[in-house]
C-alpha cells in the first residue's frame, strides 16, 4: 500500500488499510505494508488507530458479511441491519469509527499527537530525534501487529494479519523514483518479514471494494492451464464523484456495467 506525499493520504489512508485488513483470507497468510512517502507521524498515528479499530471491525465484517469493507464506504451505503442485535452492533461500531476518525483529524489539524497516545507506542518518538524532514530521514520501520504473535488477536480471539509501517530512507541529494522506488523498498522489507509469494498493490487513495479480491486474483495464478502465462492481474477501478458526463470515461461503464455484469451473472 502506498501513501503518497500528499496530506489527503494521511487522513484517508485508513479506508485502504481497513478494507485490506478485512479481506476474507486466512490472517496468518496475510501481511499488510503501508509505505509512507510523506514520512508523516500523522500517517503513522492513523495506522496505529486503524490497527486498534480493526480488532472490532474485522469480527464485525466477518459476522455480518460486510461489503465493502472500507468502514467509511460501508456506513455511507446506509446498511440495513438484519435484526435488533445487528442494529445495536452497527450503531456501536459506527460510533467507535467516528471517534477514531475524530481523534486522527483533531491530531492532524492541531499538528500534535496527544501525550497519552504517544505513551502507547515508542514509534512516535522517532519523529522527535533524528528526523529532519520528509526528504531527509533514516528508514522508519515499525511492525504494528506481528501476526506470528499468538496474542495478536481481535476482540473475538481471531488472529490478526501482520501490519507494518514503512517510511523508506530519503536523502535530498538522491532521486527516490516515486511509487516505483516505494515498491522496491516494500519488496526488500517484506522479503525479510513475511516473504509472501504473491503481492497485491493498492494505492492509498482507494479501497478494496470486494472482500474476495485476493481469492479472485489467486484463481488466475493457480489456473491449471493458463497460470504459466500470467504475470500479474489488474483489477478494474471504480471511481466516485465523477462528473455527470464523465468525459474521461472514468467509470468504465462498458466494462463494469456490461462486460463484468455478464461475466459475473
Ligand atoms: O512519490 C510518490 C508518489 C506517489 N506514490 C503513490 O503512488 C500511488 C499512485 O499515485 P497517485 O497520485 O494516486 O497517482 P494516480 O495518477 O491517481 O494513479 C494512477 O497512475 C499511476 C501511474 O501514473 C499508477 O501508479 C496508479 O496505480 C494509478 O492509479 C499512490 O498510492 C501514491 O501514494 C508514492 O508512493 N510515492
Ligand atoms: Mn490516485
TrEMBL record:
One of its GO terms (molecular function) is cellulose synthase (UDP-forming) activity. It is found in: Endomembrane system. Keywords: Cell wall biogenesis/degradation, Glycosyltransferase, Membrane, Transferase, Transmembrane, Transmembrane helix. The keyword Transferase applies. GO terms for cellular component: endomembrane system; membrane. UDP-alpha-D-glucose binds at residue 37. Mn(2+) binds at residues 179, 203. GO terms for biological process: cell wall organization; cellulose biosynthetic process. It is a multi-pass membrane protein. It comes from the Eukaryota. InterPro entries: Cellulose_synth, Nucleotide-diphossugar_trans. This is Uncharacterized protein. It comes from Chenopodium quinoa.
Amino acid at each position: 500500500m502506498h501513501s503518497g506525499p500528499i496530506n489527503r493520504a494521511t487522513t484517508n489512508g485508513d479506508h485502504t488499510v481497513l478494507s485490506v485488513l478485512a479481506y476474507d483470507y486466512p490472517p496468518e497468510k496475510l501481511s499488510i505494508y503501508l509505505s509512507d512517502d510523506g514520512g508523516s507521524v500523522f500517517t503513522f498515528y492513523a495506522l496505529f488507530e486503524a490497527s486498534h479499530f480493526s480488532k472490532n471491525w474485522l469480527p464485525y465484517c466477518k459476522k455480518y458479511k460486510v461489503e465493502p469493507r472500507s468502514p467509511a464506504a460501508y456506513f455511507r451505503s446506509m446498511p440495513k441491519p438484519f435484526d435488533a442485535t445487528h442494529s445495536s452492533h452497527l450503531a456501536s461500531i459506527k460510533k467507535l469509527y467516528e471517534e477514531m476518525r475524530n481523534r486522527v483529524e483533531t491530531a492532524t489539524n492541531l499538528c500534535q499527537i496527544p501525550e497519552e497516545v504517544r505513551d502507547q507506542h515508542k514509534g512516535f518518538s522517532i519523529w522527535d530525534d533524528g528526523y529532519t524532514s520528509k526528504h531527509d530521514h533514516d528508514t522508519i520501520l515499525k511492525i504494528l501487529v506481528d501476526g506470528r504473535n499468538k496474542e495478536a488477536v481481535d476482540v473475538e480471539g481471531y488472529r490478526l494479519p501482520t501490519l507494518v509501517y514503512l517510511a523508506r530512507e530519503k536523502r535530498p541529494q538522491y532521486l527516490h523514483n516515486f511509487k516505483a522506488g516505494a515498491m522496491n523498498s516494500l519488496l526488500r522489507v517484506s522479503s525479510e518479514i513475511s516473504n509472501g509469494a504473491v503481492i497485491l498493490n493498492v494505492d492509498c487513495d482507494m479501497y478494496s471494494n470486494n472482500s474476495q479480491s485476493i481469492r479472485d486474483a489467486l484463481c488466475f495464478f493457480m489456473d491449471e492451464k493458463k497460470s504459466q502465462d500470467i504475470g500479474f492481474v489488474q483489477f478494474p477501478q471504480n471511481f466516485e464523484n465523477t462528473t455527470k458526463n464523465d468525459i474521461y470515461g472514468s467509470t468504465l461503464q462498458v466494462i463494469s456495467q456490461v462486460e463484468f455484469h455478464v461475466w459475473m451473472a
